[in-house]
Design brief:
The protein folds into 2 domains: 140 residues, Enolase-like, domain 1; 240 residues, Enolase-like C-terminal domain (TIM Barrel). Helices cover 37% and strands 19% of the residues. It contains 14 helices and 15 strands. Helix 9 links the parallel strand 7 and strand 8. It binds magnesium ion. The site of magnesium ion has 5 residues, from loops.
Length: 393
């Protein structure tokens, strides 16, 4: 197959709110081959910043856009996908935004080649069998403990046996308020559910406060404390984990490339590495991190706060590894979470687990009606030359 077109779509809700909620907009990529097959991908980034990485004019030999690297290329095999990921990386070597941007087409190429080879992506990554995952609902804390309790009760009512609460007021008030938020989440979810806490990097490099909260939260039997510190504060993570806090520590969504994830695993002492396939440069790089986590005996979990297209891409990366059991499952009410895939997203089965799709490629398709509904038309023109204009859906 030859890559005939790379179609980029910026979709967004009519109103973007000031909340740590990545499901309000997105960048979709459709790669079309000369035989009529296509693949879809999505990046977790600022959509227009990433879109620009596909079309900007060349600055010099290490700043060349992604379209230039990939259009017209041959892609028939897993080796081709890996080769093209490396080629886009080399063309955009000095482009800071490349890893987020290229994730969309890397995912789309795995989808395309999966359809071509008639294989689900997890098999292309070398696994024989996909293992179901326990989805944990991923939501933001309410503004108050009471609101948080109501959110938790709602999730419990929807049948979730695990849920993560994050960001919002956590870390912005007193220690007592932080504890009250966690207590409310636990109360709302009940005694038997798994509850995780995401501090949203609020304590920066302050491992003392992070340790204090880990001790206080341990009373509520939480499965992990996520991102108590900033991603790049690996030394602070090390100081925190050296003290053996009574709860497990998770981090990694801020890792933008292989080395930053590896740094956290090797030098941060974390228990769970959380990787966003739409940020770290796609399935190719996430797969490498997942295999590294297996080597190091660290739990790999997806980070996903986008659509179920992204969720499917995330799942294929670790579906083949039975010991990696948990899966972040976006559970907010944005129409871009479930609405972007057709006919549905990845459902929770009757046992409360999520199965990896067995259909070729990612095993989910994009709902073009949703794309049309939320499409933001974009035209980028420099000195009269049009670098990008939103293609036909
Ligand atoms: Mg998080």
């Amino acid at each position: 197959m030859k890559i005939e077109a790379i179609d980029l779509f910026y979709v967004a809700l009519p109103e973007i709110k000031l909340a740590a909620d990545g499901t309000q907009d997105t960048l979709l990529c459709r790669v079309r081959a000369d035989n009529g097959l296509y693949g879809w991908g999505e990046s977790d980034s600022s959509p227009l910043v990433s879109l620009a990485a596909y079309v900007f004019p060349m600055s010099h030999s290490n700043i060349i856009n992604i379209n230039e690297a990939l259009l017209g290329e041959t892609v028939d095999s897993v080796e081709d996908v890996r080769r093209l990921r490396a080629k886009a990386g080399a063309y955009g070597l000095d482009v800071q935004q490349l890893d987020h941007a290229v994730a969309a087409i890397d995912i789309a190429l795995w989808d395309l080649v999966g359809k071509h080879l008639e294989q689900p992506v997890y098999k292309m990554l070398g696994y024989d069998k996909a293992h179901p995952k326990l989805p944990y609902a991923s939501v933001l804390f309410g503004d108050t403990p009471d609101e948080t309790r109501t959110i938790a009760e709602g999730l419990r009512g929807r049948g979730f046996a695990a849920a993560k609460f994050g960001w919002g007021p956590m870390g912005h008030g007193t220690a007592e308020n932080d504890v009250a938020l966690v207590a409310a989440a636990r109360e709302g979810m009940g005694q038997h559910a798994q509850v995780m806490v995401d501090a949203g990097v609020v304590w920066g490099d302050d491992d003392e406060t992070a340790y204090d909260r880990a001790v206080r939260f341990s009373e509520y039997d939480i499965s992990w404390l996520e991102e108590p510190l900033l991603s790049e504060e690996v030394d602070a993570y090390k100081r925190l984990t050296d003290r053996k806090p009574p709860v497990k520590i998770a981090a990694g969504e801020g890792a933008d490339f292989y080395r930053s994830a590896d740094d956290l695993m090797l030098n941060g002492g974390i228990d769970f590495i959380q990787i966003d396939v739409g940020r770290t440069g796609g399935i190719t790089v996430s797969d490498r991190i997942c295999k590294r986590a297996q080597e190091l005996g660290i739990q790999y979990v997806n980070h996903t706060f986008k659509s179920h297209l992204q969720l499917a891409a995330s799942l294929h990366v670790f579906a083949g590894v039975p010991q990696f059991r948990l899966m972040e499952y976006p559970a907010g009410d944005s129409p871009l979470i479930l609405g972007l895939t057709a006919p549905t997203g990845l459902p929770v089965n009757e046992k409360g687990m999520v199965d990896c799709p067995e259909a070729p490629g990612l095993g989910v398709d994009v709902n073009l009606d949703t794309v049309r509904k939320y499409l933001q038309r974009v035209k980028i023109e420099v000195n009269g030359k049009i670098l990008h204009e939103t293609p036909e859906v």
